Sequence to fold (261 residues):
Amino acid sequence: MNRFRGKVAIVTGAGAGIGRATALRLASEGAQVAAFDISRERAEETVKTIEENGGRAAPFVADVSEKVSVEASVDAVVTQLGLPFCLVNCAGILKISPALTMTVEEFDAVIGVNLRGVFLMSTAVARHMVAAAQPGRIVNVSSIHAAISLRDSAGYAASKGGIEALTFTLAADWAEYGITVNAVRPGATWSALTTPMYTPEVLSALEKRIPLGAVAQPEQVAAAIAYLASEEASYSTGAVLAVDGGYTVNGDLPGKEYSPR
Ligand SMILES: NC(=O)c1ccc[n+]([C@@H]2O[C@H](COP(=O)([O-])OP(=O)(O)OC[C@H]3O[C@@H](n4cnc5c(N)ncnc54)[C@H](O)[C@@H]3O)[C@@H](O)[C@H]2O)c1
Fold:
């Protein structure tokens, strides 16, 4: 497939995990990828891998929670690579801390990256699309914890619920400009964020709880993101696509277990 040939794509959090897999996937389909990450080293590493595979990409060091950093980086993409066709908001952080003792600084830090970051990046990119009268795609990365609890992660869960609400409203706001705004809602996925949490016991419990019987590979989430970022998803806006192996629709009582795959 060459769904992104001749198109510029911005991916935030492109230095690791789902963002890195998405950057590689879009580049493999012809996109010129602007790899945004707060870590220069990780952004450059992703770009190196894309180039080694024959693709085109450039690193951009940006903190998505900071307005000045976001606007300068998005402006630089437009100047250096051209107007982006799609933006994937994947950068995210997780802090595990009981709500009763979580500091407001901890809460704000998670909201700042996960939710304000999506608002800042989306508006910065959409302003360019609207000014150029060009349509585009925005894909936000939510989480099953927008809909179901995750113990001791009030800021994270609130940020993901906020991302889905923001997705619905921006989809309606920007439809007249031909900009679609959708979200994917991943479940448990192998990444730097989660691997330390997946002890053998946790992994075994997850595999029995997930109807498809396995934790996702980042490439499986990237495939869903690539669809929503492509021309093919032309009639979807304000949609949330679950990529969770059936986790959130599993209503069985404990004792009904699935087989690991
Ligand atoms: N891994 C999972 O199980 C899972 C499940 C559901 C949703 N998600 C979501 O997917 C997204 C990616 O998660 P992941 O597991 O791949 O994480 P990861 O930790 O592997 O990668 C996150 C990347 O984002 C970058 N980043 C962090 N803060 C940033 C900032 N302020 N500005 C720019 N870049 C920043 C990091 O440097 C890193 O490269 C997150 O939004 C996360 O909430 C992950």
The radius of gyration is 18 Å. The CA atoms of residues 143 and 185 lie 4 Å apart. Residues 12-13, 15-19, 37-39, 42, 62-65, 90-93, 113, 141, 143, 186, 188-189, 191-194 surround nicotinamide-adenine-dinucleotide (CB under 6 Å).
